[in-house]
Design a protein that fits this description.
globular; mainly alpha; 0% strand; single chain
Length: 167
């Protein structure tokens, strides 16, 4: 028997942990008034993961990293659903919906960050789920997402993938 090859996803756990840590920062929920709920926290993790995936998207050398990050996200969401008591029979259906939400978020965020895009509309729809929120709080979230996107752009992709780079 040969020893099992290391899981290539393991190298991306530090980056995924950074993503989750950024999504858990209190300013999203306090200053930004993002709902501090299971759905609100999912929305923040999916949004910040989307920022990272979009940052790495043009980097052909890191196409596998994007795929592995997505797999880590799926595994994490699967574990979270099971922790909430969702059984084997329907957990796949829920994970499928979550993946659809991530895919939709990726496309919407890509458009929102493009020249002429509307990040405010993205935030309203995807983080506040269409609910009316104080404009100053919404603007704080928009500003912080732009800051994160700019910080991610400034990080070398190899450093980002390693999970050691500050952003």
């Amino acid at each position: 028997f040969k020893p099992a090859a290391p899981d290539p996803r393991d190298a991306l756990i530090p980056l995924y942990n950074q993503i989750v840590a950024k999504a858990r920062l209190p300013h999203w929920y306090v200053e930004g008034d993002v709902p501090d709920s299971v759905d609100g926290r999912f929305d923040m993790v999916a949004t910040i993961l989307s920022l990272v995936l979009l940052r790495l998207e043009p980097e052909r050398d890191h196409a596998a990293a994007n795929a592995f990050l997505t797999e880590i996200f799926v595994d994490d969401m699967d574990a979270q659903l099971r922790e909430f008591g969702i059984g084997d029979m329907i957990v796949g259906k829920h994970v499928g919906k979550l993946m659809g939400a991530l895919g939709g978020r990726l496309g919407a965020l890509r458009a929102a960050l493009a020249e002429g895009g509307d990040l405010d509309e993205f935030v309203t729809r995807n983080l506040y789920r269409g609910e009316t929120v104080d404009a100053a709080k919404r603007e704080a979230v928009v500003r912080e997402l732009r800051t994160l996107a700019t910080a991610l752009d400034a990080v070398a992709s190899d450093a980002l993938v390693s999970g050691d780079a500050p952003w």
